[in-house]
Amino acid sequence: MSQQVNETKQIAAFLLKEIDRLIDRPVRIMEVCGTHTVSIFRAGIRQLLPEKVELVSGPGCPVCVTPNDYLDTAIAYARQEDVIITTFGDMLKVPGTSSSLNQVKAEGRDIRIIYSPMDSLQIAKDNPDKKVIFLAVGFETTSPTAAATILAAKQQNIKNFFVLTAHKLTPPAIEALLCDEKIKIDGFLLPGHVCVITGEEPFTFIAQKYHLPAVVAGFEPLDILQAIYMIAKQIHAKDFKIENQYKRVVKTLGNMQAQKIMDLVYKKAPANWRGLGVIENSGLDLTDAFSEFDALKMIPVNKEISKEPAGCRCGEVLRGLVKPTDCPLFGKVCTPNHAVGSCMVSVEGTCAAWYKYGSRVFHFE
């Protein structure tokens, strides 16, 4: 074990030295994956890199980018007497305009944590007199499993299962960032989990249109350091392309079967992102063939007028414009136990990671 640790330290030290040699100006590299965000903080990679290399967290946490409008709609549905809400656990604590799913659950509403969208189908079968609404939140990583669940509901003729969809696509969000003159980014760490599904092709515009480097990265500390090293080599050579550091998992064309299921069930649509606003073709709505499962189309609902919390700078954090510590609420009235903004709720949120790991200092001997 000690030999392995020494080898890891030696490889990391080599990569850090090479990154320092290759980069001769200040650069900002953005990760757009919540798992990368947590891995970077946990391993202290920000502190290990040369000062001229700044890592910036982008809109990579699906819970964080889900706007209050969606949350308020979910809460309104939860308050209907004949509705059961099914959701992954990290959605419960996300604050809406005036409440949260956690608070509504405490009031006695039927909100159930599930570990797979398929769990919702059994709940629907067990409760035929209830409408079961699954909160479908996530990026390309989770949308195929939700699509497979909808296909199964169709095949099994389950009439009381519905989806409130907030699935989002990563490439349009990256392009929206690149079109924002306020945001200065010199390269991207691309999300390995997303690229398992999509492959590399959807991200080629970063190099071809915007002449910036981008590397698909794994999630171990050495994966991330190697990906940054690959970006540094591209910047040094001024030869920009999409590279894949995570070849042991990500294939060039991605998961073709998952893509096929997504294309069958979903169609691209405008989507509202916290901090970025409405981005064309960045969301997934159900196609007409599966519209019977669309909660918004099938179940009337009235919700409150949505507002973002006063003073919260989550939107700017998600765009890489400010650090969490620039927010006046951070660490004071906004903590993981009492979150004001969504970026402090999810374990993959930038504010939550900064709160837990941000003050640590790391060194390689």
Automatic annotation (TrEMBL):
Domain of life: Bacteria
Entries under Gene3D superfamilies matching the protein: 6.10.20.100, HypD, alpha/beta domain 1
Pfam families: HypD
Entry keywords, A to Z: Iron, Metal-binding
GO-annotated molecular function: 4 iron, 4 sulfur cluster binding; carbon monoxide binding; iron ion binding
Biological process terms in GO annotation: protein maturation
Family membership noted in the UniProt record: Belongs to the HypD family.
NCBIfam families: hypD
Record-given protein name: Hydrogenase formation protein HypD
